[in-house]
Amino acid sequence: MKSLTFRGGIHPPGYKEATAHLKVEKAVEPNVVSIPLKQHAGAPCQPLVKVGDRVTVGERIGESDAFISALIHSSVSGTVKEITKIPDASGGEVQAIVIESDGLNEVHPSIKPVGDIGSLKPEEIVAAVRDAGIVGMGGATFPTHVKITELKDKKVDNFILNGAECEPYLTADHRLMLENPEDIIYGLRAMMKAKNSKNGYIGIEDNKPDAIESMKKAAKQYPNIKIVALHTKYPQGASDQLVYACTGKEVPAGGSSSDAGVVVHNVATAAEVAKVLKTGMPSIERITTVAGNAIANPKNLLVKVGVPIKEVIEQCGGYSKTPGKIIMGGPMMGVAQYTDEVVITKGSSGLLIFDEEEARIPEPEQCIRCGKCVEICPVNLQPLLISAYSLNNMMEHAEKYRAADCIECGSCSFICPSKRPLLQSIRVAKAAIAEKKKKQSN
How many CA atoms lie within 13 A of 70 on its CB side? Predict the structure, then answer.
């Protein structure tokens, strides 16, 4: 099978050997969970419970009337101890509902199978996905029901699942494709029906031949679902790059994949959709890869939402070395944490612990104008110029050079021989441009 790809990109070391062969383990049941009321892109939820209330597994405990939001459910049964602010994985603080588990894992009586794909109408599938609070589980956490709602003005014929898992270290999706491929196909078919899409694609990097074969076997009876082998290259799993590799279509600058007649989801999101249709259980847990050279026993763990990452680390044998950096997500696009009190959320695909040497940031040197960052940029930008304008507070020039189109993959910073803070400074420019537009619209 020919491996497809896109222009640009980089080839960082994979570092997946530690966990790629490890089956998913169910994490130890938590005694206390702190469930954030915002685990998604869009509006935060408001609590539906109060201190002293008893809740059960799968019970809705947070909701919002906003279309772009995702409902929040309890991952344990027990008593609400407090509603308070906790450290947020993306920085700052977030309101959370703290629940002390009673150890019974009593399931809420509303939890029951939704129905079979064949008998469900598209709008019923969308409603079930919304009620389950499912979000994009590749890291973006965009509410899934929004992306699968059929839009009359945008026809989407192609539906792509991202199984590339191009970030180093992470193997959660790889294990899912090996251990539960049928649910991935089931969830894809359900979302295709909701979106009225004719063709389905599952893009998988060719460094996972076992996953490619596993998914081919699961999809063999569905001729409209194609398994696409992708060249192993970062950021192969980025939405626009995945669209081009799988379909040959280009997403217009400033647009979304739906402008090219395509919608993109993660394989884990599809499996979550299958789970809610088959069992009725909402999104309350996820597979998380725990790895890095400062963790004693790397693992792929199925962890409930709301568990502090320090407990997850303890379940993996604790720190093997003095930690220098803890990252939620992958090393390229993940977010460094200032405390291990941060909790697992729906978007926690990885938890990486590096020692002090591996986490050390080299001192930047002067740009030598080698052009490598331009050559490898997957969206055809000039990172060295955007960065220079940002560092000199010349944001109008950064905007002119399309800073807002940066997908923040970090390829430019990785490839730079002078170790310039390219991504960091471009992020500053993007934030400044967004703030300016916000003020102009008010």
Answer: 28
Residue 6 lies in a domain: no
Largest distance between two CA atoms of the chain: 64
- Of the residues 229, 245, 279, the one at which a domain ends: 279
- Single-letter amino acid, residue 424: Q
Q: Which domain does 378 fall in, by range? A: 372-441
Confidence bin at 2 (pLDDT 50/70/90): low
The total domain count for the chain is 2
Closest CA to 315 of 339, 295, 338: 295
pLDDT tens track for 238-287: 999 999 999 888 888 778 888 888 999 999 999 999 999 999 999 999 99
CATH number of the structural domain spanning residue 217: 3.40.50.11540
- 153 by DSSP, 3-state: which? coil
272 and 379 inside one domain: no
Tokens 């599809």 locate to 270
3-state SS class at 44: coil
168 and 270 belong to one structural domain: yes
Distance, in Å, from the CA atom of 129 to the CA atom of 84, rounded to the nearest integer, reads: 28
User: CB within 8 A of 149, min separation 6: which ones?
Assistant: 126, 194, 195
What is the residue whose two structure tokens read 């963790």? 295
Least-confidence region, from 45-59, 70-84, 337-351, 428-442: 428-442
